[in-house]
Amino acid sequence: MRRVVRQSKFRHVFGQAVKNDQCYDDIRVSRVTWDSSFCAVNPRFVAIIIEASGGGAFLVLPLHKTGRIDKSYPTVCGHTGPVLDIDWCPHNDQVIASGSEDCTVMVWQIPENGLTLSLTEPVVILEGHSKRVGIVAWHPTARNVLLSAGCDNAIIIWNVGTGEALLNLDDMHSDMIYNVSWNRNGSLICTASKDKKVRVIDPRKQEIVAEKEKAHEGARPMRAIFLADGNVFTTGFSRMSERQLALWNPKNMQEPIALHEMDTSNGVLLPFYDPDTSIIYLCGKGDSSIRYFEITDESPYVHYLNTFSSKEPQRGMGYMPKRGLDVNKCEIARFFKLHERKCEPIIMTVPRKSDLFQDDLYPDTAGPEAALEAEEWFEGKNADPILISLKHGYIPGKNRDLKVVKKNILDSKPTANKKCDLISVPKKTTDTASVQNEAKLDEILKEIKSIKDTICNQDERISKLEQQMAKIAA
Q1: Cα–Cα distance, 167 to 257 (Å, whole number)
Q2: Is residue 374 part of a domain?
Q3: Are residues 202 and 106 both part of a single domain?
Q4: Same domain, 125 and 233
Q5: pLDDT in tens, 284-334
Q6: According to the model, what pLDDT value does residue 73 have?
Q7: Could you list the residue range(s) of the whole structural domain that residue 178 is in?
Q8: 316 and 215 belong to one structural domain
Q9: Which residue intervals define the domain DUF1899 in the entry (predicted)?
Q10: 2 within some domain
Q11: pLDDT for residue 421
C-alpha cells in the first residue's frame, strides 16, 4: 500500500542564510570549551561571547549593525574570567545576564541605541556560587527572577530587583548540571546532569517531582527542555555513541513516549523550541546543519520535517524570540549561526503565495510584559505568559529601567537605589541636599541623552555620506 503523507503546514519549511552584507563579520567568537550557545538574540540586539584577554567579554550589537565589526567596537567586559553563558531578559530588551568562570553572575543594562563605550559596571553582581557559573536563565513570566547554575552542582534563583539569592537548590544534583529549562509558566524546572539523570524540580517547594535515571545511556552531555504541554524533550547519546532524541511524560518517566536514534556525531545537540508551532530545531555543536521536527499528539509524536545544511560548522547559535520575526515574509524562526570569525543569520520560512497575515502560522505569542512580580512568584503564585498578537508586526515599547534596591543589613541606614545608568545616589539626611542631588542627576542625564542623540544623528549622516560615496564610486 502507498503510504499517505502526513498533513502538516510545516512540511515545506525551508532555511536560507542571508547575503554576506547582512552578516556580522570579523568577530572573534569565544573558544572556551563549554557547551552553551555563545549567542543570545532579541528584537533589538544580538549578543555574542568573544575571545578576550585578561577576563571575559561579550559583544552587544544592534541588529542593524551588520557588516565588518571594528576591533575597537565597545564590549561588555566586567567579568574577570571567561563568560560562559548569556541570556536576554524576556521582559526588558535592554537587560542581559551573564555567567562566568569567575563564579559570579552579572546583570547589565544596555543603552537604548547600543554601546558607545565599553561597559564595565553591571547594574548588579550576584555572588553565591563557589565554582564557575555555566548557566543563566530568566524566568519566563515573573519580572526580575533569574536562575543560575554552576559547577558547584547548585542552582540559585535570584530576585534581581533586590540582588538577593532567594532559593538555593544545592543538594539535588550529585554531578555537573548540563542544562536547566523553565516550563511554560515558570512553576517547574527540568535539568539534565552528568549523572545521566533528568530531573523535574519544583524550585519553591525545593523537591524533585520526577526523575529518570539513564534517560540516555551514553556518557556525553544531554539536554532537557520543557514543552508547552508539560512534556519533557531530551537529546543525548546511546551507549554506542549514537545521538538520540526522546520525549517524556513527567507523570510517568519509566518509558519515553518516543525515542529516536539520529546519527553518530559527537557534537552536543542544542534544542531550540517554538511553543507556538510545536517545532523543535536541533543544532549540533560542530555540525553544519539544523534539523527540525514537529511534535504532535499522534504516533510517532516526533515527526522529522527537514534539514537545513550549509558548508561551515557552527560554533554556537542564537535564536530570535517570535516577536522579532518578519511576519510579512512568513518567517517562523531566525537563527544566528556563529562561525569562527562571523555571525550569520539564517531565516526559516513557510512558503505561502499570499502576502496577507497568516494567522495559522502566528497564533498569539508571549509578549514582553511580565505576568507576575518577583515577590508574587516567590510567594507561590503562577501565571501563564501574557500573549500579544503579531498581526500588525511587533513594535518595541519603551523599556523600564532596571532598578536594584538593595536590602540593607544595617537597619539604621536607609536603602540606596541603583539607577539604570549605574549612578548610585545615597540619600542625604536633609531633604534639601537630596533635592539638589536629584536636580543635578537630572541635568547629567539630560546631557547624556543629548550627547547620545547627537551621536545617533552623526551616525546617520555618516552612513548617508558613505552611500553617496558608494554610488559615485560605482
Answers
A1: 32
A2: no
A3: yes
A4: yes
A5: 988 999 999 999 998 889 999 999 999 999 999 999 999 999 998 999 999
A6: 95
A7: 12-363
A8: yes
A9: 3-67
A10: no
A11: 41
How many domains are contained in the chain?
2
SS3 per-residue string spanning 78-105: EECCCEEEEEECCCCCCEEEEEECCCEE
Residues 450, 348 within the same domain: no
Strand duo 67-68 + 24-25: pairing: parallel
DSSP3 helix / strand / coil % (the chain, rounded to 5): 10, 40, 50
- Residue 135's pLDDT band, with cuts at 50, 70 and 90, is very high
Dihedral over Cα of 302, 306, 309, 314: its sign: negative
Secondary element (H or E) of residue 167: strand 164-169
Q: 301 with 322: CB under 8 angstroms?
A: no
Write the pLDDT tens digit of every residue in 141-151. 999 999 999 99
**Rounded distance, CA 102 to CA 118, Å?**
19
Q: How far apart are the first and last CA of the chain?
A: 61
Query: Is residue 181 in some structural domain?
Result: yes
Query: The cell 542623540 sits on which residue?
Result: 453
Alpha carbon distances (Å) from 50 to 274, 362, 457: 27, 34, 29
The x, y and z cell numbers of residue 32, run together, are: 572556551
Is the model's pLDDT at 410 over the cut of 90? no
Whether residue 316 sits in one domain with residue 454: no
Cell numbers found for residue 228 = 508547552
φ, ψ for residue 462 (rounded to 5)? -60, -45
| Whole-Å CA distances, 291 to 193, 217, 228, 277, 422 | 24, 22, 20, 15, 43
Q: Is position 432 within any domain?
A: no
Q: Do 355 and 460 share a domain, yes or no?
A: no
Q: What is the CATH number of the domain that holds 196?
A: 2.130.10.10
CB distance 371 to 141 below 8 Å: yes
Same domain, 87 and 226: yes
The rounded distance, in Å, linking the Cα atoms of 120 and 308 is 38
pLDDT digits (tens, 9 = 90+) for 331-378: 999 999 999 999 999 999 999 888 788 988 999 999 999 999 999 999
| Close Cβ partners of 332 (under 8 Å, ≥ 6 residues apart) | 10, 13, 274, 277, 279, 325, 348, 349, 350, 361
Find out whether the peptide bond into 43 is cis, omega within 30 degrees of 0.
Answer: no
From the DSSP assignment, how many helices (H) and strands (E) are in the chain? 2, 35
Residue 431: the pLDDT is 52
Q: Are residues 460 and 359 in the same domain?
A: no
DSSP state for residue 329 in the 8-state scheme: G
Pick the last residue of a domain from 314, 336, 363: 363
